Amino acid sequence: VLPGLLAGVRALVTAGPTREPLDPVRFIGNRSSGRMGFALAEALEELGAMVTLIAGPTLLPLPCVTKHVQIETALEMYKAVMARVAECDLFVATAAVTDYRPAAPAPTKIKKETEALTVELVRNPDILAEVAARRPAPFTVGFAAETDHLEDYARDKLERKGVDLIAANQVGGLVGGFERAENALTVLWRGGRKELPLMDKHRLARELALLIAERYRAHAGG
Ligand code: PMT
């Protein structure tokens, strides 16, 4: 490892899922365990970055980073990011932000009184896109979780959200993605790409952190 590669760099990393309450006991969420994001936060810190990790609910022990912020919903994650983004040089969005939330969560437990239940959902803000659109913006790294057309959809996210680098992973298959100990990534940036084959998420995170550091330094002119 090259411990000083990101010395003095202030990094903001999101990880894990968000939970969107339907009522006081139920929520809409997703399968993110936080493994990939926690491993990446730790790998960036190992390269010398000062990492603030903003994470949704997970069962994992917290990684060794400079600062932790725990949140539950996408709106809380959004507020936690926006409160800190002006003081960061590098933003890494590993979180699986739940894209929609119930428009009006019930104040008390929903009773089984009808055969069918319709819940109105409203869009959550796109944290990554909003951070990338800031001027000045930090160096932004996004993830793309896709079940199909991995590289095409990821390249589209890179352009549409205006991020500097995107790490695409296949989800919903038999290997890698959510919850598992291993993952594989196709990393894309304007004018380049690199395949990181299936490996343990800790090792993968170290390889990705090195690539991020390389692109960050090229971008910063050093
Ligand atoms: O946590 P694990 O179990 O280890 O699983 C890891 C992972 C599969 C969750 C991770 O590797 C991953 O792919 N994270 C991104 C999941 C995701 O929500 O992807 P997306 O393609 O829907 O979103 C694209 C990007 O926009 C992501 O960087 C996401 O953090 C960001 N986003 C999305 C929606 C939103 N409202 N705000 C965002 O910032």
From TrEMBL:
Keyword Protein biosynthesis: no
Function statement: Catalyzes two sequential steps in the biosynthesis of coenzyme A. In the first step cysteine is conjugated to 4'-phosphopantothenate to form 4-phosphopantothenoylcysteine. In the second step the latter compound is decarboxylated to form 4'-phosphopantotheine. Catalyzes two steps in the biosynthesis of coenzyme A. In the first step cysteine is conjugated to 4'-phosphopantothenate to form 4-phosphopantothenoylcysteine, in the latter compound is decarboxylated to form 4'-phosphopantotheine.
Domain DNA/pantothenate metabolism flavoprotein C-terminal: start-end pairs: 6-214
Part of the whole protein covered: 181 to 402 of 402
Provenance organism: Caldichromatium japonicum
Name of the encoding gene: coaBC
Binding, CTP: 99, 109, 125-128, 143, 157, 161
Residue numbers spanned by region Phosphopantothenate--cysteine ligase: 11-222
GO BP annotation list: coenzyme A biosynthetic process; pantothenate catabolic process
Cofactor: Mg(2+); FMN
Pathway(s) annotated for this protein in UniProt: Cofactor biosynthesis; coenzyme A biosynthesis; CoA from (R)-pantothenate: step 3/5; Cofactor biosynthesis; coenzyme A biosynthesis; CoA from (R)-pantothenate: step 2/5
Catalytic activity as recorded in UniProt: N-[(R)-4-phosphopantothenoyl]-L-cysteine + H(+) = (R)-4'-phosphopantetheine + CO2; (R)-4'-phosphopantothenate + L-cysteine + CTP = N-[(R)-4-phosphopantothenoyl]-L-cysteine + CMP + diphosphate + H(+)
GO MF term list: FMN binding; metal ion binding; phosphopantothenate--cysteine ligase activity; phosphopantothenoylcysteine decarboxylase activity
Note on cofactor: Binds 1 FMN per subunit.
Protein name in UniProt: Coenzyme A biosynthesis bifunctional protein CoaBC
EC number: 4.1.1.36, 6.3.2.5
Keywords assigned: Decarboxylase, Flavoprotein, FMN, Ligase, Lyase, Magnesium, Metal-binding, Multifunctional enzyme
GO (cellular component) term, any one: phosphopantothenoylcysteine decarboxylase complex
Family, as annotated: In the N-terminal section; belongs to the HFCD (homo-oligomeric flavin containing Cys decarboxylase) superfamily.
